[in-house]
Write a structure and sequence with these properties.
The chain has 587 residues and is mainly beta. It starts with 22 loop residues before the first strand and ends with a strand. The longest helix has 9 residues, at 366-374. It has an 18-stranded antiparallel β-sheet that branches. Among the domains are: 266-458, no CATH class; 473-587. The protein has nine helices and 29 strands.
């Protein structure tokens, strides 16, 4: 493709079809060892001491990627005695070069692919040590209105996590095409010492209007070396009658950054967008010529196709941040549990939740940075847009958006969890049936980037890379559920049918008046069938078919790097129907 606004620039947008496409292979192995001692101190107190060590090795191999320096040489072809030959062969700079003829449908030869393609290798290891000691017991003190005494637990924990990831030279030097930038090794470790305690206090029991009333409390002090944190919980459980129980709690939690978030080396990666806000394909009406020039774009490139990536992918600078501070969350829940005596095999629970994380460890988001700059004139956001000085692009050369790990404003979610079950419905000589429904209604999923002038935005019922802070770019349906019908046969076989459902989602930031056919990903239902055969008391075989109707996943052109194959395999069944068999033997 020759850019209409720049006839001297030739873009070759071609997939490596003959080479089989880019592939990634993952091999993981895990070892875990746990030793411990537990016992009675006396009739009312117990102790539990344990030590755990685990190690996970993760090796990743990339295949069929082209070596960037060799692409230029394989395309730079001249005639040598009438034979198309790499210029580097003629001048002796690379005698192994083989021409890569993209203009002939049959011009790609195995020799050219052998010259261009190279594997990449990453090897990593994560080690963890945990040492825990705790005591639990009964204080022997009883509230006069209760029949059970107060119970407590207290202990200490030491935990150390370490990570080493080694990358070969081709990836660390960004020599493989399509990788978005260099993949640099990582090495680091964290450790924490915790002191914790819990208490359960029965307040009222076996009284009119108070079948049970109790309160729970917990506290944890954590020392990470440079910072210390405090977390706590208080919960109330009230059953006015045996059939109904009300529960509510408030929890303060803290999470310190892990070794990846702290120490990942800075380097380029790719993010998805339909077009550059200053480009031709999907221009932002607020991105005026003056604003775009102020972020490093040459005036002549304004509203031209030069700025738009044909692949819909742009560069961003990612990486760790050793200065990250712990994030803090407050969780509020309130729910009811129903276990009616007139329907003894039925139970149901409905719980409302609200979780808000302050100082969230995340990234601001590349497209959020675009909007903050061009819509809100935020100079800090504009400074994170680093355009290629030669042509103003964000996808060619060193053009990029800075999006390092940081502490953003907040992330908040609100919704309702539902769980209903009925077990043991007798159907005569045919055995019995059971039913279970587990679902979640997502009311809000709000991200506040903490950027001046940028309003918080709600991703509930949406999909977009802009929503990556809360959901890693995966769609967030308003309603989802698993409904399972089980059949316990008279024989040593149990059969189950599961219905998985996800409500429709629409693309964030795209108005309902848009003509895009992929603006809405429709509701999805999947049916799974499984049967478990208890061969003996200690051996069983599980056979199943998932997505038995072979339903295809919804597709979108805006999935990009947050999904795969123009869909989201993290949520939807990307491979269609598949069958499996598993065996289990206990010793």
């Amino acid at each position: 493709m020759i850019a209409a606004d720049d006839p001297t620039t030739l873009y070759i947008g071609r997939r490596n079809v003959e080479g089989g496409g880019r592939e990634q292979s993952f091999r993981n192995a895990m070892f875990r060892g746990l030793v411990g001692v537990r016992g009675d101190i006396n009739a009312m107190w117990q102790y539990d001491v344990s030590a755990q060590y685990s190690s996970t090795s993760a090796n990743q191999t990339t295949l069929n990627y082209f070596l960037i320096p060799r692409i230029a040489r394989a395309l730079d072809v001249v005639l040598d005695n009438g034979v198309p030959t790499c210029r580097s062969v003629v001048d002796g700079t690379d005698p192994d070069c083989v021409p890569y003829n993209v203009f002939d449908p049959n011009g790609i030869t195995p020799a050219a692919l052998n010259y261009l393609q190279a594997p990449g290798i990453q090897t990593g290891t994560i080690d963890q040590e945990i040492y825990v000691g705790q005591v639990t017991g009964d204080l022997g003190w009883t509230i006069p209105s209760a029949t059970e005494s107060i119970k407590v637990a207290a202990g200490a924990e030491y935990r150390r996590d370490s990570l080493v990831n080694t990358v070969d030279a081709m990836q660390s030097q960004a020599l493989l095409s399509g990788s978005g930038g260099a993949t640099i090794g990582i090495s680091g470790s964290t450790k924490v010492v915790d002191l914790f305690g819990e208490v359960h206090v029965p307040l009222v029991q076996d009284k009119p209007g108070f079948d049970q009333l109790s309160v729970d409390g917990a506290y944890r002090y954590s020392d990470y070396g440079e910072v210390t944190t405090d977390t706590y919980k208080i919960g109330l459980d009230w059953a006015p009658v045996h059939d109904v129980r009300l529960r509510g709690s408030f929890q303060r939690a803290v999470r310190a950054a892990n070794v990846v978030e702290l120490f990942t080396a800075q380097g380029f990666n790719l993010f998805d967008a339909d077009g550059d806000p200053c480009g031709l394909q999907d221009p932002n009406p607020n991105a005026t010529l003056a604003k775009c020039v102020a972020t490093g774009m040459p005036a002549a490139a304004y509203h031209t196709s030069t700025l738009d990536s044909p692949a819909g992918q742009y560069n961003f600078l990612q990486g760790g941040n050793p200065s990250l501070t712990p994030e803090k969350s407050d969780t509020k829940t309130f729910g009811v549990i129903l276990q009616p005596r007139f329907l003894p095999k039925f139970s149901a629970s409905i719980d409302w939740f609200n979780i808000k994380i302050e100082n969230t460890i995340s990234t601001i988001g590349t497209t959020v940075t675009w909007d903050a700059c061009y819509n809100n004139d935020d100079p800090v956001a504009c400074a994170r847009i680093v355009r290629n000085p030669a042509n103003g692009t964000l996808w060619v050369g060193d053009g990029h958006v800075i999006d390092l790990n940081t502490n953003i404003g907040s992330l908040e979610t609100t919704g309702i969890d539902v769980n209903m079950s009925y077990a043991g419905l007798e159907i005569g000589k045919a055995g019995s049936l059971s039913f279970n429904l587990t679902g979640t209604y997502l009311e809000e999923l709000i991200t506040d980037p903490g950027s001046p002038g940028t309003e918080p935005y709600d991703c509930a019922g949406k999909f977009s890379s802009s929503c990556a802070s809360g959901t890693a770019g995966v769609p967030s349906p308003r309603w989802r559920h698993h409904a399972r019908l089980g059949w316990q046969t008279p024989w040593p076989v149990d059969v189950s049918l599961t219905w998985r459902y996800f409500s429709e989602v629409s693309q964030f930031g795209v108005p309902s008046t848009s003509a895009r056919i992929d603006r809405v990903l429709g509701a999805q239902s999947y049916l799974d069938l499984a049967g478990n055969w208890a061969v003996t008391d200690k051996a069983s075989v599980l056979i199943g078919i998932n997505n038995i109707l072979d339903k295809d996943p919804p597709l979108s052109s805006s999935v990009g790097t947050t999904g795969n194959g123009n869909t989201y395999p993290q949520l939807y069944d990307a491979l269609g129907r598949y069958m499996f068999i598993r065996g289990k033997i206990a010793f």
